[in-house]
């Protein structure tokens, strides 16, 4: 990494032989960092980010597709798990499955995202396969927030949620053909016109705040085409980037601006300037990056290497 950049490896932990871990980072309403992992096939685990000690393990989750963490007011944080049979909610402190409404139990949910509504409630959004739908639920109860949102004509593969500068809670969903639809998470009404991306078989969509006040949507397809869009206007941000096929994408807002963490299946992780598209600094070991912005401008970064996960604190992310 460039001179002046400080990175500290906080902890490393591993699962049993043959159990490949994929990390996920999130922040609870309390400010605490939640470090999770999913294992190919069946289980979710939570880890202590400082020591690498496993806090709990849920063995009853088959084929988890994605994880997200919601923070309902006055309650424990909730882990939302996208599965082939809808969405499962787990207590983030104990790992126990939460009772409540059946959440798209007859649909495969490929991705989940979470956010806050203007009234303070936390919501979960899901990307549906069978009905090409986008789902919204109250994170505390699992109750639907209105009917599924329709507009996609092919299965929805990726979803993200972010609050815009004017306070609008935005959901952005992307289907396999690269078409992005934006929704007001509170009302369920469409937000702006569809964004027609150039990608093929799009699988990853992230959102991040930029230092100039804009909000970016970044989409990566399975062939390695990276598209960037203004979340408010739908206009492109910069040219297409091509980091390569079968890559993983994460993002964070760091001191100095937004950064993207991109890694091929066998690593390493490279840091990209979200706006200029330039590669910053030297590569970092591992793959499957998960990133989380910190209030002081640093970034938590978790990476996977087979059965092990390494967690680093980037005190001065490269610029």
Automatic annotation (TrEMBL):
<dbReference type="InterPro" id="IPR011047">
    <property type="entry name" value="Quinoprotein_ADH-like_sf"/>
</dbReference>
<protein>
    <recommendedName>
        <fullName>Pyrrolo-quinoline quinone repeat domain-containing protein</fullName>
    </recommendedName>
</protein>
<dbReference type="Pfam" id="PF13360">
    <property type="entry name" value="PQQ_2"/>
</dbReference>
<dbReference type="InterPro" id="IPR002372">
    <property type="entry name" value="PQQ_rpt_dom"/>
</dbReference>
<dbReference type="InterPro" id="IPR015943">
    <property type="entry name" value="WD40/YVTN_repeat-like_dom_sf"/>
</dbReference>
<feature type="domain" description="Pyrrolo-quinoline quinone repeat">
    <location>
        <begin position="5"/>
        <end position="189"/>
    </location>
</feature>
